[in-house]
Fold this sequence. Notes:
Strand content: over 45%
Largest sheet: 6 strands, mixed
Radius of gyration: 24 Å
CATH class: Alpha Beta
Structural class: alpha+beta
Distance between the termini: 38 Å
Number of strands: 10
Order of helices and strands: HEEEHHEEEEEEE
Number of domains: 1
Number of helices: 3
Shape: elongated
Amino acid sequence: MDKKVLSNYFKEWIRTVTGLDSDHVISLNTTAPRPRGQYVAINILNIRKIGENEIKYITKPNNFVDVNRSGIFEVMLSIDVYRGEAFNILSSLINSTDEVWTTEFFNSKSIGIINQSASRDLSREINNSWEERLQCDFFFYVTDNRTETVETIEHISGNGFGQNYSI
């Protein structure tokens, strides 16, 4: 599982639902300055493995085996909405989790929507002006598939204690 790839999927979802451009849907804690106007910042806070991996072995020619590992992870995504219509933006993201487009989009990426936390109002005063800020955590299941090709041993022989062994 690649954090950058996951972040890009989440950003694409947010841009599609909100209509914000890519300069206004950013990863939190980047070194870039905050965008002007309304924006959304995301942060993948937690990735937790659920259960054990499913492992499949596929025999290949010339003593090689592909080992396919498939695991399910729970991912916690924090979404912060700043300025403008923060409440409406966050509401549209929450409501979109029930829409067919969103479900199909995430399913095509091996991501399933679990739920979200209650939204939190984090508004504060900045330079004698009030800045609206809302935050919500979204929870997803993500399937991670990895393949590793390993070389197998075709034949072992040896001797010991006066006997010859061959496997």
